[in-house]
Amino acid sequence: MTEKQPDGGRTAGAERTTDFVEALARGVRVLECFTFDQAESQRGRMTLTEVGKLTNLTRGTARRLLLTLKEMHYVDSDGKFFWLTPRVLRLAEGFRMPIGLGDRTLALLQGLTRTINESASIAILEGDSVVYIERVEVRRIYSSRIVNGTRLPAACSSIGRVLLASLPPEQLDNWLESYPLEQMTTKTIVDPAKFREELARIRAQGYAIIDEELELGIRSIAVPIGTSFGRVVAAMNASTSIARHSVEDLQKIFLPELLRTAEELSRSMDW
After folding, report:
1. Which PANTHER family match (predicted)?
2. How does pLDDT run across 154-169, given as a tens digit for each residue?
């Protein structure tokens, strides 16, 4: 499964303004290249050349940015490789704590995972992707490569479809105009009319099921997480192998547990 790359944090149809600071954007791109997917081969360690290639920056610019980040204690280096330091976790906590992502949320996800014996996640919509913000993985011989911060295509993920189905009509129209539907497997819905029909069905039933549309052999089910005012702000899913569970299992076994956990999460998360 290939992780989606960030679109710079801009929303559909957004344009750069005269206030855009290119130097800052370059620094952020350098930090973002140390993601799980990009740096996995070196276990989070990257050379100056690798950073320059991933960010499309010259060697000199990449070097200055890395040394600046090193001076600020966001990266460290042994002279050949660079890697992130624990200081970057402060940035993550700056997002997690205000919305209530903490021990309570983790405990609820862990409880869900123990009950259904499958991995469970919470994610939000950002551009054409969903971004995972909390995940509990079930230990198996072959586990997924999804971690907090992973980005996957919204259109063909169960979480993404739940979130897209919750958008106001005009906002959904803008999204579909900005992001073409991408064919991930032979089962992926890429026809816009059929996609809209699927979103309408999801909106009516309150959950989404993806059956091998994102990755062959994998199916998942997702439900929305809303505020006390009824606004959907995130979604939660559970995924499984087609060899372990049928679509009917997702509806009869997973769905009641997901709905119960989502209701508790809605009360505990400060959106």
Report:
1. HELIX-TURN-HELIX TRANSCRIPTIONAL REGULATOR, ICLR FAMILY, TRANSCRIPTIONAL REGULATOR
2. 999 999 999 999 999 9
